[in-house]
Amino acid sequence: MKLITRLLYLPVVGILLLGSCAKEESESYDKFEDQALEAWMTQNRPELLGNLQSDGHYYVEVLDVGEALTDVKPLRDTACWVRFDFSGRDLSGNIVLTRRAAEAKLVNTFSKYTHYVPYYRYCGVVNTNLMEGTYLAMRNVLHLGEKYVEDNKDLIPGLTTELELRKGSKIRLYMPSRIVGSSGVEGEGGYEGQYSLSSQRPFIVELEVKNIVKNPLESEGSEVDSFCGANGGLWLYTEEGDEPGSSKIPTSYDDEHHPYKLREDGYRWVSVCDTVAQVYVDLCYDPTQASDNLNFDFAVKDEENSYLWQNRPYNVGFAPYDGSDLETKIAEVLKERFHADEEYTHPGVGHPEADSVGLNGEAKIWYIGRFLDGFIFDTNIDEVKELIYGEVSSEGSALTYTPEEDRSSLISSYYYVIPNLCYGQWAEFVTISSQAYGATGRTGSTTTSGGSSGYSSSYFDYLNYYNYLNSYYGNSYYGSYYGNYYYDYYNSYYYNYGYGYDDSTTETTTTISTEIPPYTPLIFQIYIEPADE
Prior knowledge:
The chain has helices at 10-20, 29-44, 101-106, 132-139, 146-152, 216-230, 259-264, 326-338, 347-350, 382-389, 412-417, 462-465, 471-477; strands spanning 52-53, 58-64, 80-89, 95-98, 119-123, 142-143, 162-163, 170-175, 203-213, 234-237, 246-247, 269-271, 279-282, 363-371, 376-379, 399-401, 426-431, 445-450, 457-459, 499-503, 508-513, 522-528. The protein is of the alpha+beta class. The protein has 3 domains: 10-214, Chitinase A, domain 3; 217-438 and 520-528, Roll (Chitinase A, domain 3); 445-513, no CATH class. The longest helix has 16 residues, at 29-44. It is elongated. The two termini are 46 Å apart. Residues 1-26, 187-193, 302-310 and 452-505 have low confidence and may be disordered.
């Protein structure tokens, strides 16, 4: 549904309109809107009038200046990627869009398909993917009125007449429509927990900088290494194999560095091969065992020993991510679905000579795709879908995959993992984005199809639209960092595996794809169907 905005400043606008009849018709809308916004600020937030920014004509309210100015460089100091939390409202206070689950729940737009975490976008010298107003605030020196600073310096430590945003900074922006977006903020509600703000309407955004990343590839690589090290231990296969915690790839099952033997020695994760960086596999994963359920330690630290933004399991306080026993329930349905008649025995452990899929074998794969905080963004297992989303009518089917033939149809990490797996085997792997969705990520979408009219529609909300522009920086500036690891960024595999639910009155099916931000590492838990099935 569309949110009908009734702005508090309309009575003031009416007065301005009466006086504008005698003015020249050529007076621009921008000037008119600036006058209307100023009138609203005068009536509602007069203490902020001195905080008007000339570049963009928006007003700034400071809630927190951020971490110690001497220790943390400002955002505008360099080109970087930013994780920031935000919430947007119209001038009447109605929530328009948000990254906060509680606010989405409040306005009845909470979606179990939405990953309510800080936004992750590039912030460089040229704006390519940010709402103009937030970009201006991040890249410019914000000038604050002397009276405002004097009145608030005791409440906001470190406040001065000039503010540069940095990690920990929290501000509120009061913006005219021209730095929000020419067509407003569009969407029917639901995905991203948003309603719509019509074009040419001012906008209030509360913004908090959570983290600043100078090199996203290096950052996520450190994140993955730390994650695996903290969750079972990590052993690297390298061409030389002469560094501590590493070896050459074993040539036989009896090798002391074989993954099965290493698991016994306390190393859960191993390199998928010695030529692909930071794709790690656990070949002994068994979801029916309590020790192998997703009880990960998410307090992963970055290279500066400070906690990253996803420093705990995903928990927004609402089912199914409410801190309950979701993982236990998932383990139970997986055992019932795949191993109801007998205890599961890992075929590779019991039978080292068991047939592997190889490059030309056909694997039928059942999978659960997650972010590192445990949020499930995709699965083809019906029982898991029902636990996460409720009853669904679209029956999942095994993903058929022959590595040599279907290499380009899936994210490239599958090509390196699947050939080494045995039929009837469980496994899990962690992959960096360059072997998954890369610098562009994947846009979230809602698509409705079917019905007597044959109507089919889809939309990409205002924020996700900018995902298309992420390649400006990521693919050009960092294009040589991993060389050919950028293979397959643009595949559309997951668009074919959405979660459908049926509306019996209109006979339509709605498919929703969860957004995957740029440079996002992922976990996949997979089961290879036995060959005789």
